[in-house]
Predict the 3D structure of the following.
Amino acid sequence: MEAVGFDAYRMAARVGWEIYPIGGNCVPESIPHGLMMGLVLIV
């Protein structure tokens, strides 16, 4: 989604989802859960 211009973090925050960025600098114990988002387009 971000590759085509969607700000996935901002959209998730607007709908009230708790999001935690997961990357190389994070401490695994500080992240309660992971979140994967996607987009389905029906034409």
Remarks:
- The chain is about 15% helix and 0% strand.
- The chain has one domain: 1-43.
